[in-house]
Amino acid sequence: MPRELWAPQAWVRGRWQAGVRLAIDGAGRWAQVEGGVAVPPPGAEVLAGPVLPGLVDAHSHAFQRAFAGLAERRDGGHDDFWSWRERMYRVALAIDPEQLRAVAAQLYVELLHGGYTEVCEFHYLHRAPDGSAYADPLTLAWALADAAAETGIGLTLLPVLYERAGFAAEGLRPEQRRFAAGADDVLAMRAALRAAARPNVSAGLAIHSLRAARPASIARLAAAAGDGPLHVHVAEQTAEVNDCLAATGQRPIEWLARHAPLDARWQLVHATHATPAEIDAVAALGAGIVLCPTTEADLGDGLPDLPRWLAAGVPVSVGSDSQVGRDWPSELRLLEYGQRLLRRERNVAAAPAQGWPDTASRLFECVLAGGASAAGQGTGGLECGARADLLVLDAADPARLGLPAARALDAIVFSAPGRSFADVMVAGRWVLRGHRHPQAEAIAARAAAAIEALAAA
Predict the structure, then answer these.
(1) DSSP secondary structure of 93-118
(2) What is each CA distance from 313 to 130, 187, 282, 321, in whole angstroms?
(3) Most buried by CB count within 10 Å: which residue of 252, 281, 341, 431?
(4) Residues 26 and 115 in one domain
């Protein structure tokens, strides 16, 4: 007998519906979703507020949570992405499996509070600190999976192909020694992760970037990728674009569109510096993009051409990346506000001619669908067959104080700060109740110790 919930209001198929009955099957998926049910059915659990689907954090480097807040000063005459990267390497070289699990668990609790119920880990920490292989190549991946199991968040692990320091390099720099993995290595990792069949853990593949992977290896991985997903960093920095032009005669997204079999499995992470022709090519091939607005702002990457990506119909998702932001309302807010500052307009992402006059609603619906594709879930949201993930809005959230119910998404995204999500469910199981995770204190204590030790090192 399916377990039943009843919500006074829920976001179903792109709009708010009143009186929604939700049935969960034994596999933790939605068996039925029915609106217009004015009275809670007998035996149904009555939810305390309006309900949203959980979102996918489509791009995360969990270990970088240990680094958040430690790079916000300039020690020399110049500071940019590349100087930040050198400081990040020091954390990557120091962290051990237990510290990674501790930091990741803290991050995952924070992501649940931020409205994410699934996280895609772009995982390139493969080796021991001295660069040698662990006896189990998945030692650090299991640390992430253990952290996900402890917190209850869903996890898509994406082992990363990483084999050279730049377009002209033969191999990796010493400080990149923990990242080394060829195409066959990451294919074997994915196979082992899938064979383990851990609950709410899935696996795909990733390519760090065009500069970090040889064309033959990209071709090998793409040919063996099967059902995906397949993620790649691309066109995040102008220096990367210029280096790619010098090495190949083509821009990074242009090169991928011509040489890689781009399709719906592919997710282009950042895609900050894209020409209209590149955007049209990605749209024609069916690939998606993953934007990480808080990280891209923190690193000075630049702003994407959001209106053109949306107009082209390219699937869009969002990610927390370097963990300076850990909630999706912040990502959507900065995504829109960056465009407002650039174009000196308001409600840039709204599309009234297409039935989307509300900016937050359009962005939410875009990233809901895009995130499901990025995680390889097929379908997401409050839909039959999707995993039973949801967010219960806090009735006492000051951001929504006095506002009509139809403006809930606008308030969550554009009326900050707030305490939006009181309860969070993943796969039919409550993981947050009343803003609290049952293991929060123990997880925070372990994470604090790990972060303190890494900062000292």
Answers:
(1) HH--HHHHHHHHHHHHHHHHHTTEEE
(2) 45, 31, 10, 23
(3) 252
(4) no
Q: Is 394 a catalytic residue?
A: no
Set 113, 208, 270, 273: catalytic member: 270
Answer yes or no: 259 catalytic: no
Are both 46 and 89 inside the same structural domain? Answer: no
Residues 308, 434, single domain; the answer is no
> Out of 57, 185, 305, 321, which one is annotated catalytic?
321
Judgement on whether residues 100 and 179 belong to the same structural domain of the protein: yes
Question: Which pTM was predicted?
Answer: 0.97
CA distance 288 to 301: 19
Domain identity same for 261 and 324: yes
Give the pLDDT score at 86: 82
Residue 200: which of 119, 102, 100 has the closest Cα?
Answer: 119
State the sign of the Cα–Cα–Cα–Cα dihedral 152, 154, 160, 165: negative
pLDDT band at 235 (very low <50, low <70, confident <90, very high): very high
Per-residue pLDDT tens digits for 46-93: 999 999 999 999 999 999 999 988 777 777 767 777 678 888 899 999
- Nearest Cα to Cα of residue 122 among 200, 57, 194, 196: 57
CATH number of the domain enclosing 68: 3.20.20.140
pLDDT digits (tens, 9 = 90+) for 84-129: 888 889 999 999 999 999 999 999 999 999 999 999 999 999 999 9
Q: How many CB atoms lie within 10 A of CB 199?
A: 12
